[in-house]
Amino acid sequence: MQGTLVPGEPLYEIHLADRLGMSRTPIREAMKLLTRDGYLQQLPSRGYAVPLRSLEDLREFFELREVLEASATRYAALRATAAEIAELERLCQRYEREKNDAKWAQFGHDFHSVLIKAARNSRLEVMLNSLNAQIVLSRRTVAQADAVRRQAAVRDHRAIFEAVKARDETRAQTLAAEHVRRSYETTLRAYVPDAFSIRQSA
């Protein structure tokens, strides 16, 4: 998750066992679990690697995130406690003021985590946490959002918060879906900026 292992880097049980100072059995089981959850891929040589994500992978990730996160936000509007709503407001305020990119991104992540928790659906929470982790891994090497898209994200978070606070489940769900679509476009702009330049000049 910290980016220590780069996409495509091969990983082998024996090397990891030596590095971590443990037997190969727990390493083998961990690798199987990480492969099952999409964090690693198995190689023909019996090793593993951090996956190289394609644009098709990103599309699938964001399509699934749009459906799941919009639903979670709807349920949050129905079920969030007063304490969770207060926490969402606090995170909104810090998100709006933060200048440091890394801290700003963390506040955004924390905002979504509180929403997902407030949905009160443990299975949905597990699925979204895994999915969002894979999205972070997939785009960690691309550029940060520029000032325009950063402000759009700030507005999105504020609007989502206000809908949840008002218990407007339909609006909360719609806003969350739109926010995920904008996040996907920001990611695509970083991956294939030339395609967007062509679109704008056409």
Quick structural summary:
This protein is an all-alpha fold and 202 residues long.
Can you describe this structure?
The chain is an all-alpha fold. It folds into two domains: 10-49, Arc Repressor Mutant, subunit A, CATH 1.10.10.10; 55-192, Four Helix Bundle (Hemerythrin (Met), subunit A) (Up-down Bundle), CATH 1.20.120.530. Helices cover 74% and strands 3% of the residues. The protein contains nine helices and three strands; from the N terminus they run βααββααααααα. The protein has helices at 13-20, 24-36, 55-79, 82-97, 101-118, 122-139, 147-165, 169-191, 193-201, and strands spanning 10-11, 41-42, 48-49. A three-stranded antiparallel sheet has the order 1-3-2. A hairpin with a 5-residue loop joins strand 2 (41-42) and strand 3. The longest helix has 25 residues, at 55-79. Mean pLDDT is 88; it is low at 198-202.
SSE diagram, text form:
Layout: E1 10-11, H1 13-20, H2 24-36, E2 41-42, E3 48-49, H3 55-79, H4 82-97, H5 101-118, H6 122-139, H7 147-165, H8 169-191, H9 193-201
Antiparallel strand pairs: 1-3, 2-3
- List SSEs in N-to-C order: EHHEEHHHHHHH
State the name of the first-level CATH class of the largest domain.
Mainly Alpha
Rg over alpha carbons:
19 Å
Secondary structure class reads mainly alpha
- Unreliable segments of 5+ consecutive residues: 198-202
Please describe the biggest sheet, giving its number of strands, its sense, and whether it closes into a barrel.
3 strands, antiparallel
Count every beta strand, where a strand is a DSSP E run of 2 or more residues: 3
- Write the CATH fold name of the largest domain: Four Helix Bundle (Hemerythrin (Met), subunit A)
Give the tally of structural domains. Answer: 2
Question: Helical content, roughly?
Answer: over 70%
Biggest β-sheet: strands ordered side by side in the sheet: 1-3-2
Outline type: globular
Strand content: under 5%
CATH architectural label of the largest domain: Up-down Bundle
The number of helices is 9
Mean pLDDT: 88
Can you say what the CATH homologous superfamily of the largest domain is?
A: GntR ligand-binding domain-like
Q: Kindly, what is the distance between the CA atoms of the first and last residues, rounded to a whole number of angstroms? A: 39 Å
